Amino acid sequence: MKKNIICISCPLGCRLSVSMEAGKVTSVEGHSCKRGAEYGKTECENPVRTITTTVKVKDGSLRVLPVKTEKPIPKDKIFDFIKSVKTIEVSPTVNTGDILAEDVCGTGVNLVACRALT
Q1: Which residues fall within 8 angstroms of residue 80, CB to CB, at 6 or more apart?
Q2: 84-114 pLDDT, tens per residue?
Q3: Of 4, 13, 70, 94, whose CB is crowded by the most CB atoms within 10 A?
């Protein structure tokens, strides 16, 4: 089976042709750099995404606080992850990089603050 995807690892946006057999990548063609080959393999075997969103702030100068995952999570866990994050509410005195939730949805990935909140 062949999949055609566009690489997003660098600004070139190479058109990749990924060959697969039994759920495993056998070849990646069309990439201009090593990152493209790795992206094609990962995207077809185990796609992941870094999630950026906001959480509610209780009694602060801001209504919401920008947050993100410490590292990418499996693509099939995104909706469960967002649903879980919507329940989080933080109070002031948060520093950039503070962990606001650990191992969200059993992904092993933490949710961190993207800015300070005083």
Answers
A1: 105
A2: 999 999 998 999 999 999 999 999 999 999 9
A3: 94
This prediction's pTM: 0.81
pLDDT band, residue 77 (cuts 50/70/90)? very high
Q: Could you tell me the fold of the domain covering 52-113? A: CPE0013-like fold (3.10.530)
Amino acid at site 63: R
3-state secondary structure of 118: coil
- Domain-wise residue ranges, the chain: 2-46, 52-113
Residues near 94 by beta carbon (within 8 Å), at least 6 away in sequence: 65, 100, 113, 116, 117
3-class secondary structure, 16: strand
The half-sphere exposure of 46 on its side-chain side, counting CA atoms within 13 A, is: 4
Beta-carbon contacts of residue 84 (< 8 Å; ≥ 6 apart)? 101, 104, 105
Q: What's the CATH fold of domain 2-46?
A: N-terminal domain of TfIIb (2.20.25)
